[in-house]
C-alpha cells in the first residue's frame, strides 16, 4: 500500500479487500476483556482536525488506543487559524516532533495531498473538503459485506447532497471498483458536474434509484444549501427526495439503510426509517473502529509501495 | 515424518496429556494460527476418544503481537486473521499448540496475547516438531519429534486440512 | 549610436518582409532594412544563421505588482523578466495597492520603469475608482499621465451601464477597455473549471459560460457604443465563438489568449501533482475542447494577441490549500518557448503570424509605437532562436516569483537577445551570440 491514505483512489481492488479482511480480524479485539493489542506500541499518531467532528475523531482515537499507539488530538480552533499559522507551518511543526502518522480532517479538498508532499509522516485523510473520506467508504463497505456477504453485483442507491459530499465520491469509487451497480440521486442542482464519468447511474428520480436496491445510503442535506438556491425548502426536499417507509418499499425487501451521520431527521431521512429494522446506521459507527484499526495497522508497516 | 508417523505421534501426545493432567475438565486447547489450529482440533478429537470429554478448542492469531512487526524496511504488513477463543481462559490449564518450535518468538507473542485474554492457571506448550535454535528461554512440554536442523534449512509441517496432505518436510532454503 | 545587424532572417509582417535582411539602427531608431547595407562606421554584428529578427515583442497583460505588492514582483524585476522573455515592452495592470486610478500611481510606475532601463512599460489604468465598479476613474488624467488602456482586471466592469459609459468615455481618448470577462454570480466561490476533474477532486467549478456571458455583454455594448473592447485572457470556446460573432457584426472587439490556455488543460489539476496550486489561475485551465478551440483560433486568425497574464505570487502564498491559493502563474519567461514549441514548430502558425500575435497586434490595439521595423520606428527588436533547446528552470528565472507549472519542461525555441531603443538589454548565454 502507498505511504498515505488520501483517498479510495489510492487503493487497488485487492488492497480494499485487504482492509476489509483485516478489519474482520480487528473487530474481534473489541470483544475481548482487554481491548488492546501491542501492535502500534511506541508509535505516535496525531489527530489533526480542522473541522469539528465527534464521531470520526473518537473512532480514530479508540482505534489508535486499541493498537496501543500514543495519540495526540489537535482540534484547531478558529482562533488558531485567525492567528495566521498556515496548514503547512502547523504540519511542519508537528513533524518536527516526529509523529508516525497524522490523521487529518480539513475543510479544503486536497489538504492531505499538500501535507503528504511535505511530511514524512503517513497521512490518513479523515475527510478533506468535498473530495474524499476513505475510511467512511471502507466502513460502509464492511457493513454492506457483513449483511449482504458480497459487494459485487449489488445495487446501491446513494441519495442526497451529492455535489458537496466527500462520502459520495469515496463510496462511488469504492463500490464501482468492487463491482457494485451504483445509482445516485438528488436534485439536479446538487448533482456533481460530469457525474456520469464517476461510473454511476444518475437520476433525479429517487424512485428509479431505489427500485430493487440492496442498499440505500442517505447523505446529509445542510440547511445552508437553501441559501445557495440549491432547493427551495426543506419541506420540498423531504417530499421529493426524503427516504420514507413508503419510498423504501420499492427496494428489495431486505434492503439496508445507511447514513454516514449526523442525520437530519425529517429532511433526508424519516425517523421511522432511521430507527427502523433495516437501519444499520449504528453498526456503521461500531464498524468504524475496526476498519480504522485495520487502516492504521496496514499503513504503519514499512515503506510499502 | 510421514502421515502415519504423524498420526501415531498425535495419539501418543493425546495419551501423555491425559496421563499428566488429572483434571481433564480444566483443560483447553489453543492452536496458534495457522497450522497449530488443525493440530489442536485433532488433539481435541483424540482426547475425546480417550476420555469422552470435549476439550474446548480456540484459535489464536499472534500477528499483532509479533516483535518484528514494525521493523521491516520494506514490504507490506503480514496478514492478520481472526482470533476465536469462545470461552473464558481464567483458571484453565491452557495447552498452546503449534506446528514447529524454532526461535521461540512466536510462543512469546502467543503468551502475551493469552495473558490479555485472562489469567490461566497454567500454560503448557505442545509442538509437533522442535527444530532447536532457541533465541528465547522457551521450552515445549510435549514434543512430537525433536529434529536437529541447521538455520539454512526450512521445516514445513504439511496438514491435510491446510495443504491437502500430512507430511513433515525439511528443505534447504 | 549606430549598429548594423547583418544577415539575420527578418520577419516583419507589417512591411511584408520575411527573409534575410540587414537592419541598421541609428540613435535608437530603425534607420533602414535592406540587403547589403553599408556599415558607414556602425558597430557591425554578424547575426548567426537560424536567428530570427522580429520587431520587439509586446506583452499587453502583465502584473508588475508595484506599488504595494513588491514581495511578489517589482517593476525592476518584472521588466528584467520581460526582456529575458524577449519582450521589449509590457502593458501593466492597475490592480496594485494603491490601485492605478490616478496620475500619481501612473507616474510612479513610469518612474520605476525608467530607472530600470529595461523593457518599456505602458501602464493600464483602472476603469473605475479603486476598481470598485461604482464610479469611473479620472480617465482623461490617466491618459494624460501615460495610460494606454483601461481595465478593472481581476473582475469585470461591475455593471452593464458602467461598462457602456466606460466604452463611450474611453473612446474619446482612443483607449480600449480591456475586460476580464466573468459573470460573478456564476463564478461564486469557484476555483477551477467546472468539469469532470474539478468535480472528482471536490473543487468548486467555474463554467466556461461565466466567461462567455460577460463577453457577449461587452461585445454587445461595444456594438452599441462603437467603443473598443479587448477580451483579456480568453479561455472558453464559447467566448471565442462570441468574439467571432461580434467581429462578424462589425463590433470593435479584439481578444487575447495566454500560453497556458493553449497548452494545458484541467487534467493538470489531478496529474502529475494533484491540487498543484501552479495550475490555479483565473480564468482556469479548461477542457481539451476549449484548449483545442484556442489552437484553432490562433491558427485561423480569430484570435488577435498572445499575452501572458504574468501573475507573480510569492512562494508562501502558493504553498497552501488549493482553495486558499491566489489565482495566477508567471508567464514572461516561458511564453516564447511555448509559442515556438506548441504553435510554430507543429505548423499551426507561421513566424509572421507569431509576430502579429505578439508584437504587431498588441501595438495596434494599444496604439503604441512598435510592432514593426519601419524606418523611424523605435529600434525595439527581439532576436529569436527557433531551434534553441530550452529547459525551463524556475530557479534561474529573473522574476521574483517562481509560480510556474512549466518548471523542468524541455522546449524547442527561445530568445537569443532583446534590444530596446537600440540598446541590448538581454543576451541569452546559451544562444552563444556576441551582440
Keywords summarizing the entry:
heterotrimer; A: alpha/beta; five-stranded parallel sheet; 12 helices; B: alpha/beta; two-stranded antiparallel ribbon; 4 helices; 7 strands; 29% helix
Description:
The complex is a heterotrimer of chains A (305), B (173) and C (435). The mean pLDDT of chain A is 93. Chain A is built from 12 helices and 9 strands. With 305 residues, chain A is an alpha/beta fold. Chain A is globular and about 55 Å long. In chain A, helix 6 packs across helix 7 (166-177) and helix 6 (134-148) packs across helix 12. Chain A has helices at 13-27, 55-66, 78-82, 87-95, 111-118, 134-148, 166-177, 206-210, 234-241, 245-248, 271-274, 281-299, and strands at 44-49, 70-75, 101-106, 122-128, 155-159, 181-185, 201-203, 215-218, 256-258. Chain B has 173 residues and is an alpha/beta fold. In chain B, 29% of the residues lie in helices and 26% in strands. Chain B has helices at residues 3-20, 36-51, 105-117, 160-163, and strands spanning 27-32, 57-60, 93-101, 122-130, 142-146, 153-158, 167-172. In chain B, the strands form 2 sheets. Chain B has a 5-stranded parallel beta sheet with strand order 2-1-3-4-5, sandwiched between helices. In chain B, helix 2 links the parallel strand 1 and strand 2. In chain B, helix 1 packs across helix 2. Chain C is 30% helix and 24% strand. Chain C contains 13 helices and 18 strands. Chain C has helices spanning 75-84, 103-116, 139-145, 160-171, 184-187, 196-201, 209-225, 237-248, 259-263, 288-300, 315-318, 335-344, 351-366, and strands spanning 2-12, 17-26, 29-34, 43-46, 52-55, 57-62, 87-92, 120-126, 149-151, 177-179, 192-193, 205-206, 228-231, 252-257, 305-306, 381-391, 410-420, 423-427. Chain C is globular and about 65 Å long. The mean pLDDT of chain C is 97. Chains in contact: A-B, A-C. The interface between A and B is medium-sized, with 27 and 22 residues.
Amino acid at each position: 500500500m502507498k505511504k498515505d491514505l488520501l483517498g479510495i483512489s489510492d487503493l487497488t481492488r485487492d488492497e480494499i479487500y485487504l482492509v476489509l479482511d483485516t478489519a474482520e480480524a480487528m473487530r474481534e479485539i473489541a470483544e475481548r476483556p482487554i481491548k488492546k493489542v501491542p501492535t502500534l506500541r511506541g508509535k505516535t499518531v496525531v489527530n489533526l482536525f480542522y473541522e469539528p467532528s465527534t464521531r470520526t475523531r473518537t473512532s480514530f482515537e479508540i482505534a489508535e488506543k486499541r493498537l496501543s499507539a500514543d495519540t495526540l488530538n489537535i482540534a484547531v480552533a478558529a482562533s488558531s487559524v485567525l492567528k495566521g499559522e498556515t496548514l503547512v507551518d502547523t504540519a511542519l511543526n508537528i513533524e518536527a516532533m516526529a509523529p508516525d502518522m497524522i490523521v487529518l480532517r480539513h475543510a479544503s479538498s486536497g489538504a492531505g495531498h499538500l501535507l503528504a508532499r511535505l511530511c514524512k509522516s503517513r497521512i490518513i485523510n479523515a475527510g478533506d473538503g468535498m473530495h474524499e473520506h476513505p475510511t467512511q467508504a471502507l466502513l460502509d463497505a464492511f457493513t454492506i459485506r457483513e449483511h449482504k456477504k458480497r459487494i459485487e453485483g449489488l445495487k446501491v442507491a446513494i441519495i442526497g447532497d451529492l455535489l458537496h459530499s466527500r462520502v459520495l465520491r469515496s463510496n462511488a469509487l469504492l463500490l464501482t471498483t468492487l463491482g457494485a451497480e451504483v445509482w445516485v440521486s438528488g436534485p439536479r442542482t446538487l448533482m456533481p458536474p460530469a457525474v456520469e464519468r464517476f461510473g454511476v447511474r444518475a437520476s433525479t428520480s429517487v424512485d428509479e434509484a431505489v427500485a430493487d436496491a440492496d442498499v440505500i445510503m442517505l447523505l446529509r442535506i445542510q440547511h445552508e444549501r437553501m441559501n445557495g438556491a440549491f432547493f427551495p425548502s426543506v419541506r420540498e426536499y423531504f417530499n421529493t427526495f426524503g427516504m420514507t417507509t413508503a419510498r423504501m418499499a420499492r427496494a428489495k425487501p431486505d434492503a439496508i439503510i445507511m447514513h454516514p451521520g449526523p442525520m437530519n431527521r425529517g429532511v433526508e431521512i424519516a425517523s421511522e426509517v432511521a430507527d427502523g429494522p433495516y437501519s444499520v446506521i449504528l453498526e456503521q459507527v461500531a464498524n468504524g473502529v475496526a476498519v480504522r484499526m485495520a487502516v492504521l495497522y496496514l499503513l504503519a508497516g514499512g515503506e510499502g509501495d | 515424518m510421514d502421515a502415519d508417523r504423524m498420526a501415531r505421534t498425535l495419539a501418543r501426545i493425546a495419551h501423555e496429556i491425559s496421563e499428566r493432567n488429572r483434571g481433564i475438565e480444566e483443560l483447553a486447547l489453543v492452536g496458534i494460527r495457522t497450522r497449530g489450529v488443525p493440530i489442536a482440533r485433532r488433539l481435541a478429537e483424540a482426547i475425546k476418544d480417550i476420555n469422552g470429554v470435549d476439550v474446548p478448542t480456540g484459535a489464536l492469531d499472534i500477528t499483532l503481537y509479533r516483535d518484528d512487526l514494525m521493523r521491516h524496511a520494506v514490504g507490506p504488513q503480514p496478514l492478520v486473521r481472526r482470533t476465536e477463543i469462545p470461552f473464558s481462559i481464567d483458571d484453565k490449564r491452557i495447552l498452546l499448540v503449534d506446528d514447529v518450535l524454532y526461535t521461540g518468538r512466536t510462543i512469546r507473542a502467543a503468551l502475551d496475547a493469552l495473558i490479555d485474554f485472562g489469567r490461566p492457571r497454567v500454560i503448557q506448550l505442545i509442538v509437533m516438531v522442535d527444530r532447536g535454535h532457541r533465541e528465547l528461554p522457551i521450552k515445549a512440554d510435549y514434543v512430537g519429534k525433536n529434529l536437529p536442523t541447521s538455520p539454512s534449512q526450512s521445516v514445513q509441517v504439511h496438514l491435510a486440512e491446510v495443504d491437502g496432505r500430512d507430511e513433515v518436510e525439511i528443505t534447504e532454503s | 549610436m549606430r549598429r548594423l545587424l547583418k544577415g539575420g532572417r527578418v520577419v516583419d509582417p507589417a512591411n511584408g518582409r520575411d527573409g534575410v535582411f540587414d537592419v541598421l539602427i541609428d540613435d535608437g531608431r530603425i534607420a533602414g532594412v535592406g540587403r547589403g547595407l553599408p556599415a558607414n562606421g556602425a558597430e557591425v554584428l554578424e547575426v548567426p544563421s537560424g536567428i530570427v529578427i522580429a520587431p520587439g515583442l509586446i506583452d499587453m497583460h502583465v502584473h508588475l505588482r508595484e506599488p504595494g505588492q513588491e514581495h511578489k514582483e517589482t517593476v525592476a524585476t518584472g521588466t528584467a523578466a520581460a526582456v529575458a522573455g524577449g519582450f521589449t515592452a509590457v502593458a501593466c495592470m492597475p490592480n496594485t495597492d494603491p490601485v492605478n486610478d490616478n496620475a500619481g500611481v501612473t507616474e510612479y510606475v513610469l518612474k520605476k520603469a525608467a530607472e530600470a532601463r529595461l523593457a518599456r512599460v505602458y501602464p493600464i489604468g483602472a476603469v473605475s475608482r479603486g476598481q470598485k465598479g461604482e464610479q469611473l476613474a479620472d480617465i482623461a488624467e490617466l491618459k494624460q499621465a501615460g495610460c494606454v488602456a483601461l481595465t478593472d482586471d481581476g473582475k469585470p466592469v461591475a455593471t452593464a451601464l458602467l461598462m457602456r459609459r466606460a466604452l463611450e468615455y474611453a473612446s474619446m481618448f482612443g483607449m480600449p477597455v480591456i475586460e476580464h470577462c466573468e459573470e460573478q454570480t456564476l463564478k461564486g466561490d469557484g476555483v477551477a473549471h467546472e468539469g469532470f476533474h474539478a468535480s472528482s477532486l471536490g473543487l468548486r467549478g467555474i463554467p466556461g459560460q461565466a466567461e462567455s456571458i460577460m463577453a457577449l455583454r461587452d461585445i454587445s455594448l461595444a456594438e452599441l457604443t462603437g467603443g473598443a473592447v479587448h477580451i483579456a485572457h480568453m479561455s472558453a470556446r464559447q467566448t471565442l465563438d462570441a468574439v467571432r460573432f461580434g467581429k462578424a457584426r462589425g463590433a470593435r472587439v479584439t481578444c487575447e489568449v495566454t500560453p497556458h490556455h493553449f497548452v494545458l488543460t484541467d487534467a493538470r489539476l489531478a496529474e502529475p501533482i494533484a491540487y498543484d496550486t501552479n495550475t490555479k489561475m483565473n480564468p482556469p485551465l479548461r477542457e481539451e475542447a476549449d484548449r483545442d478551440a484556442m489552437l484553432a483560433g490562433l491558427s485561423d486568425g480569430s484570435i488577435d494577441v498572445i499575452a501572458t497574464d504574468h501573475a507573480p505570487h510569492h512562494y508562501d502564498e502558493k504553498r497552501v490549500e488549493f482553495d486558499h491559493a491566489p489565482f495566477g502563474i508567471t508567464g514572461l519567461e516561458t511564453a516564447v518557448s511555448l509559442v515556438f514549441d506548441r504553435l510554430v514548430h507543429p505548423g499551426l502558425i507561421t513566424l509572421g503570424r507569431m509576430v502579429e500575435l505578439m508584437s504587431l497586434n498588441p501595438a495596434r490595439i494599444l496604439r503604441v509605437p512598435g510592432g514593426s521595423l519601419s524606418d523611424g520606428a523605435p529600434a525595439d527588436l527581439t532576436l529569436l532562436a527557433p531551434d534553441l533547446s530550452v529547459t525551463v528552470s524556475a530557479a534561474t528565472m529573473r522574476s521574483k516569483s517562481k509560480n510556474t507549472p512549466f518548471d523542468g519542461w524541455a522546449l524547442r525555441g527561445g530568445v537569443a537577445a532583446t534590444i530596446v531603443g537600440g540598446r541590448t538589454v538581454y543576451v541569452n548565454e546559451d544562444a552563444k551570440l556576441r551582440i
